[in-house]
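tool=predict chain=A
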Amino acid sequence: MTRTRPATIRDVAHRAGVSTKTVSRVINRESYVAESTRTRVLRAIEALSYRPNPAAQNLRRTTSRSIAVVVEDISEPFAAEVTLAVEHAVDEGTTVIVSSSMGDPGREATILATLAARQVDGIILAPTQAPRPRLLHRMGRTAVVCVDRPVPGEPTDVVLSDNARGMQEAVETLLEQGHQRVAYMGDSSRVFTQVERLRGYRAALESRSIDLDRALIYEHRPDVERTRRHLAWLTKLPDPPTAIVSGNSLTTLAMIRADFNAGLDCFIGFDDFPLADFVCGGVSVVAQDAAALGGEATRTLLRRIANDAAPLKTSRLATRLVLR
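tool=predict ok
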């Protein structure tokens, strides 16, 4: 007479098409599990006559009902708006922990390790421009969703603005106004968002069969004095640009502080910023929807916490051209 092996949590997970972590959450009556998934797991448990081990259950971690948001600088308007959207997107029983990496990869790594040790359920991360290698390798059970840019080489869900399309629309608008020489003032070429936005700039030129002129492309960290010198240099070219786009709000502000006077009617900056509708009579911008980014990042994180076996997803949210 043979004895049938008792069903294990792995058997349940396989039958339900989810991870063992999701089965554990259903058994422990934790939140973050979609009702359809919960029903599927419960049916698998019933079909297999699975009986959880009470002793093992007591050793498992229950949900902390907390998530974290890690940005480069919480005082930056974009980061603050993303964070506020996260606060609005979670239920009242969830605590949101906010921390700033200050753009320091070492500080960023320390913050993430601390949050993982405190067993937060998940982290929404706006990573630094040059994160440490294998930054998320030791996060264990902690779910991570990247917002604004990914961590190179790390498999996570990512929520981005459609940077390339937004810049392409800005440049095409200037081209339609008759400008054939449009300069690009961008950040360092190592910055993910700048790579995408420069791709949009190139695409706009290609759509009008305009040859790319490397002399019109500037890629450096925003610096007022360097920006002033470069703007002066552009005006002395044999065939100077008649319009300019910028790669981010910091570059736009550096241009304004450098006494940029090429005519704001032929300038469009990427990223809105406080008083952009007032400064210099109004600055046209490609506006990202920070609130939508924060909300989508939160929903993505909650889905990931509920089912860590789901395929990874990259979401790109549309930008909006604001002409002033």
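The chain is about 40% helix and 15% strand. The chain has a mean pLDDT of 88.
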